């Protein structure tokens, strides 16, 4: 594999890791909903003067996934690439 292909594969792995975190969070929300009731309407308001409404869980999942990928994928890729390179040097 070319280095760019290796990076692509590591990036996919990072994205899957983020997907798992988001899925576990959504599952926890669904568990709360099934135990205590409530509606699927969710409101995300980072500031009092502005807000964004998210009407479905799949919307929340998309927002969380995108936000976490923007925040973490580059750093995850850097760390995982370094870990792989360190392992290869041991061989």
Q: What is the fold's blueprint, element by element?
A:
Layout: H1 3-36, E1 42-44, E2 52-54, H2 57-90
Antiparallel strand pairs: 1-2
Helix pairs in contact: 1-2
Description:
- It is elongated, with a radius of gyration of 18 Å.
- It has a two-stranded antiparallel sheet with strand order 1-2.
- With 91 residues, it is mainly α.
- It is 75% helix and 7% strand.
- It has helices spanning 3-36, 57-90, and strands spanning 42-44, 52-54.
- The model has no long low-confidence stretch (mean pLDDT 83).
- It has one domain (18-90).
- Helix 1 packs across helix 2 (57-90).
In short:
The protein is mainly α. The protein has helices spanning 3-36, 57-90; strands at 42-44, 52-54. A two-stranded antiparallel ribbon has the order 1-2.
Class based on secondary structure composition and strand pairing: mainly alpha
Radius of gyration: 18 Å
Form type: elongated
- One letter per element, helices H and strands E, the order comes to HEEH
**In percent, how helical is the residue content?**
over 70%
Strands of the widest sheet, in order across it, are 1-2
Number of strand elements: 2
* Quaternary form: single chain
Percent of residues in beta strands = 5-15%
- End-to-end Cα distance, whole Å, is 18 Å
Domain tally: 1
Q: Please work out how many helical segments DSSP would assign.
A: 2
Taking pLDDT < 50 over at least 5 consecutive residues as the criterion, the unreliable ranges are none
Overall pLDDT metric: 83
Largest sheet: 2 strands, antiparallel
